[in-house]
Write a structure and sequence with these properties.
By secondary structure, this protein is an alpha/beta fold. The chain is built from twelve helices and twelve strands. The structure holds nicotinamide-adenine-dinucleotide.
Length: about 300
């Protein structure tokens, strides 16, 4: 299968390396010239606890190098999804499927709007990766990947893509309905990410500290009410207990949003707590706790990211 991955940072590189290693024809496209140059010159190194392997996907900064593909995977951060989708439109053939495993809620909707809803497959992944240096990533976490058609139902191509990802080493299930899993992960991220980025606390400390635990519980309960109003059946019974469990299981982690702010990068707040606020407003509900988290993160982005005016 010919595959293009748009956004070849930590996750795009991980999926690209593994798919190339099992013989798929993989193109990585990224705006980072040093990363693309390193992959072209030395291959893409993936570090795990078992050692380091090198894969040889093709890499470019120019869409014109790629041509049409069978599968387009979008792995930019959510703030760049629309721009990436608009540029990637030229890679589409009549049957090209478009997959997103990005965090947050709304990426699939943007892809559906820009590229056509019948093409889109969305999902969640518990894989974890970090960019160490250009051309070299750390595969730090392994876990299940779930994918589902944006329009619902189990299609032959959904099963084919689940099998492809599984063959590349990412155990993947094809889901009849993906919204419950997207919301399940969204609520976990909504409880942990912004709060850890605002306070600078590791995930576990958010539970140990009574004040942050209270805010986490308020944000999660509010998000769960929005999911309930949308008639989403979450993949767990007690959202607060689930988010608490995840924060404790990842106690030493510094959330991706905390890392983004530390590195003066725009965060994915609009796709996480921002999505809860937007969906609540659409339903005529209020989500003041999530709204405050959004506003505080925006204020911190203004302070730390020079391109934000
Ligand atoms: P990342 O910042 O490492 O990679 C994003 C890449 O996109 C960067 O290399 C950047 O140069 C590139 N980019 C930005 N704008 C672009 C554009 N317009 N066109 C092409 N490339 C562009 O991010 P990541 O950690 O790989 O995360 C990607 C997505 O996966 C996010 O939604 C994240 O929340 C999600 N995710 C990450 C992890 C993880 O462990 N890193 C785990 C699960 C989900």
């Amino acid at each position: 299968m010919k595959i293009a991955i748009i956004g070849a940072g930590a996750m795009g590189s991980l999926f690209g390396a593994r798919l190339a290693s099992v013989g798929e024809s993989v193109w990585l496209l990224d705006t980072s010239e040093p990363h693309v140059r390193a992959i072209r010159e030395k291959g893409l190194a993936v570090v795990t606890t078992k050692g380091e392997t090198i894969a040889f996907p093709q890499a470019t900064t120019d869409y014109a190098d790629i041509g049409t593909v069978d599968l387009l995977i979008i792995f930019v951060k959510s703030a760049a999804t629309r721009a990436a989708a608009e540029s990637a439109a030229e890679l589409l053939g009549p049957n090209t499927a478009v997959l997103t495993l990005q965090n947050g809620y709304g990426n699939a909707q943007v892809l559906a709007e820009v590229l056509g809803k019948e093409r889109v497959i969305a999902g969640t992944t518990a894989q974890g990766a970090t960019l160490l240096e250009p051309g070299r990533i750390l595969h730090g976490g392994d876990g299940l990947t779930h994918i589902g058609e944006f329009c619902g139902g189990i299609s032959p191509r959904l099963q084919q893509i689940a099998a492809l990802l599984s063959r590349a080493g990412f155990a993947t299930t094809a889901e009849n309905e993906i919204a419950p899993l997207l919301w399940g992960k969204l609520i976990i991220n909504a409880g942990i990410n912004a709060l850890s980025a605002i306070t600078g606390l590791e995930n576990g400390k958010l539970i140990e500290c009574g004040e942050t635990r209270t805010i986490l519980e308020m944000a999660v309960s509010e998000a769960a009410k929005v999911a309930a109003a949308l008639e989403i059946q979450l993949p767990y019974d007690d959202p607060v207990a689930e988010v608490t469990k995840v924060a404790i299981a990842t106690a030493k982690n510094r959330s991706s949003m905390l890392q983004d702010l530390d590195a003066a990068r725009i965060t994915e707040i609009d796709a996480i707590n921002g999505a809860i606020v937007r969906e609540a407003a659409r339903l005529g509900l209020a989500a003041p706790v999530n709204q405050v988290l959004v506003l505080l993160i925006k204020a911190l982005e203004r302070k730390k990211v020079s391109s934000v005016d």
